[in-house]
Amino acid sequence: MGPYLTNESILELLRISDNISHIKDVYCLLDRVLFEARTITNADAGSIYLKKGDKLSFEHFQNDTFMKKDRSSKKYIYKKQELAIDNTSIAGYAALHKTHLLIDDVYNLDGSVSYTFNRSFDESSSYHTQSVLTVPLITSRDKTIGVMQIINAKDEKERLTSFLKEHEPLVTFFANQAATAIERAQATREIILRMIRMAELRDPLETALHVNRVGIFSVEIYQRWAEKKGVPSREVRQTKDILGIASMLHDVGKVAISDAILKKKQRLNSRERDEMKLHTIHGARLFRDSNSDWDDMAADIALNHHERWDGTGYPGHTSRDVFNDDISSDDFTGVGKREEEIPLPARIVALADVYDALISKRYYKDSWPEERVVEHIEAEKNKHFDPDIVDAFIDIYDVIKAIREKFSEN
């Protein structure tokens, strides 16, 4: 194939673009976009930067070489890094000038160019970057929202080689389609975060950073759980996409709880505790007119994320219609659901939420030491938490820490 798009390649790219346009969660979308771009070019690795203010923020990373050696390398996805949008870096240059850059060997750049290759990642990880194809992510409104870098093209025998000239129009076309999908997913996430910020005005514990962390923790825990259970990859992708957004609204029902209870700094009495438990019902009711899998999962999580594996959680079983009957704590709490009676997404969010609450500082408490938090999670295996979810959490704890550091409150 020559350096231009063929009808076949355009149709394939349109098919891929249509698939990614249905992904709601921005982090799941970035993962899929990078995977598809690497598949098009048979590349070993890649990264995506998104524009935040006047800088590029490192947002996603894939590397087959790393993943074959060490599962914990996924923590690099959540590395904090920012680049100036200027002529000094490869990604910054591409964003500034809205141009793609095809480089055969980043260690032997033409001396006439203004940008340089930052070798710090290679040096710290013992990786060797060679060929790089860098493309700006430009929406249909000609707005640059980020940069995608595809790294280390491979030939049919998996040997490092240069990117082909024909890769440039393919990846550029795909990047432009992906940019619009990313912008839409960012808007969806921002709407959710605005809802959380409104809730935060009433409940100081429900912060945007907290729900961000719980959402991303939940997706990563599910990913590991699904791998161990042999869940088909298509189902994993679909579930992660819905879970990433639905889990962020686990406590949204607190908006219906009185300020006297939400903002009380002393221990709640039994009547107040009973009223607080009803936030699970209020939260589920926000999704009562369900018309999607997302609504269904959001309702399941809101209703059940305080249930416990051993059956001692709440609100438990009830004979009342959760979505329509008048609410009173006596009617809507019952014998706790146990084990797999609790929907899987709620079992995952239960652990993610408790972990973040314990390890974070709040106005009423200091953060627990990390070792104590992990010991508590492990001690609650088969009690509060699904044992398989605990195992998945421990397996990826390096990734969990990286998420916490990236979305820290400092």
Structural features, described:
By secondary structure, this protein is an alpha+beta fold. It has 2 domains: 7-183, 2-Layer Sandwich (Beta-Lactamase); 202-406, Hypothetical protein af1432 (Orthogonal Bundle). The protein is 49% helix and 11% strand. It is built from 17 helices and 7 strands. Strands 1, 2, 3, 4, 5, 6 and 7 form a 7-stranded antiparallel beta sheet that branches. Strand 6 and strand 7 form a beta hairpin. Helix 7 (208-229) runs antiparallel to helix 8 (233-246). It is elongated and about 75 Å long.
Q: Which tags fit this structure?
A:
410 residues; alpha+beta; Beta-Lactamase; Hypothetical protein af1432; 2 domains; seven-stranded antiparallel β-sheet; 17 helices; 49% helix; elongated
Topology (elements, then pairings):
Elements: H1 7-20, H2 26-41, E1 43-52, E2 55-63, H3 64-69, E3 82-84, H4 90-97, E4 101-103, H5 120-125, E5 132-138, E6 144-154, E7 160-161, H6 167-200, H7 208-229, H8 233-246, H9 259-262, H10 270-277, H11 279-285, H12 293-304, H13 329-332, H14 344-359, H15 370-379, H16 387-395, H17 397-406
